[in-house]
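Box 3.1 A note on notation
Throughout this textbook, protein chains are presented in two layers. The first layer is the amino acid sequence; the second is a C-alpha coordinate string describing backbone geometry. Keep the layers aligned when reading.
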Amino acid sequence: MKGAKSEQSASLGGVTYSDKVTARLHYIDVPVLARVNAGGLFFELGPQVGFLVAANRKEEISGGIGAGTYNDDVKSDLKSVDFGYAAGLGYQLSNGPGIGLRYNGGFSDTNKESGSSAVRNSAFQLYVSFMFGGK
Protein backbone atom coordinates (compact mmCIF):
# COMPACT_ATOMS: atom_id res chain seq x y z
CA MET A 1 0.00 0.00 0.00
CA LYS A 2 1.22 3.46 -0.88
CA GLY A 3 -0.30 6.73 0.24
CA ALA A 4 -0.05 10.35 1.19
CA LYS A 5 -1.27 12.68 3.93
CA SER A 6 -1.65 16.43 4.06
CA GLU A 7 -2.95 18.80 6.70
CA GLN A 8 -3.59 22.51 6.58
CA SER A 9 -5.39 25.00 8.76
CA ALA A 10 -6.22 28.68 8.65
CA SER A 11 -8.06 31.21 10.79
CA LEU A 12 -10.42 33.73 9.27
CA GLY A 13 -12.78 35.98 11.19
CA GLY A 14 -12.23 34.13 14.45
CA VAL A 15 -13.07 30.73 12.92
CA THR A 16 -10.36 28.10 12.48
CA TYR A 17 -10.68 25.90 9.43
CA SER A 18 -8.71 22.69 9.01
CA ASP A 19 -8.47 20.18 6.20
CA LYS A 20 -6.86 16.76 6.58
CA VAL A 21 -6.56 14.53 3.49
CA THR A 22 -5.40 10.90 3.46
CA ALA A 23 -4.96 8.98 0.20
CA ARG A 24 -4.39 5.22 0.13
CA LEU A 25 -3.23 3.59 -3.09
CA HIS A 26 -3.21 -0.19 -3.37
CA TYR A 27 -0.85 -1.59 -6.00
CA ILE A 28 0.34 -5.03 -6.93
CA ASP A 29 4.02 -4.41 -7.68
CA VAL A 30 5.99 -6.83 -9.86
CA PRO A 31 9.74 -6.16 -9.54
CA VAL A 32 12.39 -7.80 -11.75
CA LEU A 33 15.53 -7.42 -9.66
CA ALA A 34 19.17 -8.30 -10.18
CA ARG A 35 20.69 -9.40 -6.89
CA VAL A 36 24.33 -9.34 -5.83
CA ASN A 37 25.26 -11.44 -2.79
CA ALA A 38 28.26 -10.71 -0.57
CA GLY A 39 28.19 -13.34 2.14
CA GLY A 40 24.83 -12.92 3.83
CA LEU A 41 24.53 -9.30 2.71
CA PHE A 42 22.74 -8.64 -0.59
CA PHE A 43 22.01 -5.70 -2.87
CA GLU A 44 19.17 -5.62 -5.40
CA LEU A 45 18.23 -3.28 -8.25
CA GLY A 46 15.88 -3.36 -11.22
CA PRO A 47 12.69 -2.21 -12.91
CA GLN A 48 9.18 -2.86 -11.66
CA VAL A 49 5.64 -2.44 -12.87
CA GLY A 50 2.74 -1.69 -10.52
CA PHE A 51 -0.94 -2.43 -11.16
CA LEU A 52 -3.43 -0.19 -9.34
CA VAL A 53 -6.19 -2.26 -7.71
CA ALA A 54 -7.79 0.38 -5.45
CA ALA A 55 -7.42 4.05 -4.54
CA ASN A 56 -9.29 5.84 -1.77
CA ARG A 57 -9.26 9.41 -0.49
CA LYS A 58 -10.55 10.54 2.91
CA GLU A 59 -10.97 14.24 3.65
CA GLU A 60 -11.81 15.61 7.09
CA ILE A 61 -12.90 19.26 7.15
CA SER A 62 -13.60 21.17 10.36
CA GLY A 63 -14.92 24.69 10.77
CA GLY A 64 -17.27 26.41 8.38
CA ILE A 65 -20.21 25.24 6.30
CA GLY A 66 -18.54 22.25 4.59
CA ALA A 67 -17.42 20.57 7.83
CA GLY A 68 -17.53 16.79 7.76
CA THR A 69 -15.77 13.66 6.60
CA TYR A 70 -15.81 12.68 2.94
CA ASN A 71 -14.67 9.37 1.45
CA ASP A 72 -14.09 8.98 -2.28
CA ASP A 73 -12.94 6.23 -4.62
CA VAL A 74 -10.30 7.99 -6.75
CA LYS A 75 -9.11 5.00 -8.79
CA SER A 76 -10.62 6.48 -11.97
CA ASP A 77 -8.46 9.63 -11.49
CA LEU A 78 -5.22 7.63 -11.70
CA LYS A 79 -3.48 5.61 -14.39
CA SER A 80 -3.86 1.88 -13.82
CA VAL A 81 -0.19 1.00 -14.52
CA ASP A 82 2.89 2.54 -12.91
CA PHE A 83 6.40 1.94 -14.27
CA GLY A 84 9.30 2.42 -11.89
CA TYR A 85 12.37 0.97 -10.24
CA ALA A 86 13.35 -0.71 -7.00
CA ALA A 87 16.65 -0.72 -5.12
CA GLY A 88 17.39 -2.37 -1.83
CA LEU A 89 19.70 -4.17 0.52
CA GLY A 90 19.34 -6.77 3.18
CA TYR A 91 20.75 -9.75 4.99
CA GLN A 92 19.83 -13.37 4.28
CA LEU A 93 20.91 -16.26 6.52
CA SER A 94 21.77 -19.47 4.66
CA ASN A 95 19.36 -21.48 6.84
CA GLY A 96 16.24 -19.44 6.05
CA PRO A 97 15.35 -16.09 7.64
CA GLY A 98 16.23 -12.74 6.11
CA ILE A 99 15.42 -9.04 6.35
CA GLY A 100 15.54 -6.29 3.74
CA LEU A 101 14.90 -2.63 3.07
CA ARG A 102 13.80 -1.55 -0.40
CA TYR A 103 13.01 1.79 -2.04
CA ASN A 104 10.46 1.91 -4.88
CA GLY A 105 10.34 4.94 -7.15
CA GLY A 106 8.01 5.70 -10.03
CA PHE A 107 9.11 6.92 -13.46
CA SER A 108 5.62 7.64 -14.74
CA ASP A 109 3.11 10.33 -13.79
CA THR A 110 0.15 8.45 -12.30
CA ASN A 111 -2.23 11.42 -12.56
CA LYS A 112 -4.68 11.13 -15.49
CA GLU A 113 -5.43 14.86 -15.64
CA SER A 114 -3.32 16.67 -18.21
CA GLY A 115 -2.07 20.06 -17.07
CA SER A 116 -2.05 18.96 -13.41
CA SER A 117 1.05 18.57 -11.29
CA ALA A 118 2.92 15.32 -11.90
CA VAL A 119 2.27 12.61 -9.32
CA ARG A 120 4.90 9.89 -8.92
CA ASN A 121 4.90 7.03 -6.46
CA SER A 122 7.67 6.69 -3.91
CA ALA A 123 7.79 4.19 -1.05
CA PHE A 124 10.13 2.44 1.38
CA GLN A 125 9.49 -1.19 2.26
CA LEU A 126 10.85 -3.12 5.22
CA TYR A 127 10.34 -6.84 4.82
CA VAL A 128 11.19 -10.19 6.32
CA SER A 129 11.69 -13.32 4.25
CA PHE A 130 12.37 -17.01 4.57
CA MET A 131 14.43 -19.02 2.07
CA PHE A 132 13.49 -22.68 1.83
CA GLY A 133 16.21 -25.20 1.02
CA GLY A 134 19.19 -22.94 1.81
CA LYS A 135 21.48 -21.19 -0.69
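The first strand starts at residue 2 and ends at 12. Strands lie at 2-12, 15-31, 34-38, 41-62, 68-73, 81-92, 97-106, 122-130.
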